[in-house]
């Protein structure tokens, strides 16, 4: 079983299935007891809704049960529905399970999934920091646990598990007063169980695999498999290139890391210097912020209905794609290999950070930019000076 809470997680589950099927050195079944017959790298390309040449019945021989635990925001839910359609076209079973939106929703979802979770031989998760996923892990009896990318958070996950630390998102700041501390104390046993599940057992017995595009190194008995977006490249593109530059938005303002006014100045500067014409919005960016950006810069705001890796691979896409430190500076070079697109990352100036930003934010964002492969580095000073 696979549990996903975002469009990118679902995309990376499909990439993991493809990578396992394409690896001749891996003699194990795709999932324990399930044959490894899925679409080959030579399958036809097409847009969303295009079925494989073998059809869903043939693909069903390697079917994976994917459980979608959707968030409440409309953009994420829309992208998840499109990704769910792609997964079904690949022959996989997709179950849409509401686990939010009401006080009893998490408990109802847990009860509905408990039997299948206990019976699963392999469990794939997309967000090890998710409290709901951690709650599900208390029911897991599987010997194999796979973590697929949920973006740059994977870097922090690897670092924290290597140090044996509590799993906490890099941008999270402590607080919540007495009520928050009581909640953390009550949740501590669940968090501790999740940490144990994510720790491989030396000598076998409990296997943990990380499937990632991020520059991470497995520790202990953990297994690392590189996600090079082979499924995306086989399924879509190559894209038509435009003459302009595309900017990629970030939710750093929404998460309280970057000051809104400083972010606007930086986007305005990048637009002017690089001749950008389009701005691909992050699914969590607020409509008010996007409206302000459009009015201040003249950029065309694009709200993708699929993860950016698929949108860029389908095209059209600019010959240069500029992003702030985020997941895409690691994933787009893989997805756009051989297309002639240059991916650039603009550093975050420490002065742009808010007073409430996590103490780890500055170092983490710098590490995201510095470790990106096959990208062009843009110093924050250039954007600031131009602005």
From TrEMBL:
Residues 25-58 are annotated as: Disordered. This is Uncharacterized protein.
């Amino acid at each position: 079983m696979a549990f996903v809470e975002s469009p990118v997680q679902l995309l990376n589950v499909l990439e993991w299935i493809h990578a396992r099927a394409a690896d001749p050195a891996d003699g194990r079944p795709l999932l324990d007891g399930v044959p490894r017959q899925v679409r080959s790298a030579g399958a036809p390309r097409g847009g969303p809704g295009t079925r494989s040449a073998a059809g869903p019945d043939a693909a069903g021989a390697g079917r994976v049960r994917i459980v979608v635990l959707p968030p409440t925001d409309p953009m994420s839910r829309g992208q998840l529905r499109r990704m769910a359609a792609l997964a079904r076209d690949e022959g996989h079973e997709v179950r849409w399970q509401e686990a939010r939106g009401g006080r009893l929703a998490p408990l109802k979802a847990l009860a509905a999934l408990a039997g299948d979770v206990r019976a699963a031989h392999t469990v794939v998760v997309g967000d090890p920091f998710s409290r709901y996923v951690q709650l599900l892990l208390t029911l897991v009896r599987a010997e194999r646990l796979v973590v697929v990318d949920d973006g740059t958070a994977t870097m922090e996950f690897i670092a924290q598990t290597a140090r044996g630390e509590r799993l906490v998102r890099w941008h999270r700041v402590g607080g919540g007063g007495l009520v928050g501390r009581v909640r953390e104390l009550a949740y501590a046993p669940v968090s501790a169980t999740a940490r144990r599940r994510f720790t491989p057992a030396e000598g076998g017995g409990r296997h943990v695999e990380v499937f990632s595009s991020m520059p991470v190194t497995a520790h202990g008995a953990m297994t690392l498999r590189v996600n090079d977006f082979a499924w995306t490249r086989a399924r879509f593109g190559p894209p038509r290139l435009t003459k302009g530059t595309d900017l990629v938005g970030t939710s750093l303002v929404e998460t309280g890391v970057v000051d809104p006014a400083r972010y606007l100045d930086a986007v305005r500067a990048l637009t002017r210097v690089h001749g950008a014409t389009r701005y691909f919005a992050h699914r969590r960016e607020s409509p008010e912020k996007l409206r302000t950006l459009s009015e201040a810069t003249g950029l065309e705001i694009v709200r993708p209905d699929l993860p950016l890796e698929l949108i860029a691979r389908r095209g059209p896409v600019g010959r240069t794609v500029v992003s702030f430190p985020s997941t895409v500076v690691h994933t787009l070079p893989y997805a756009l290999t051989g297309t002639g697109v240059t991916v650039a990352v603009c550093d975050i100036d420490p002065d742009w950070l808010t007073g409430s930003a996590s103490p780890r934010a500055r170092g983490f964002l710098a590490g995201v930019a510095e470790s990106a492969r096959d990208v062009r580095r843009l110093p924050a000073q250039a954007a600031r000076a131009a602005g």
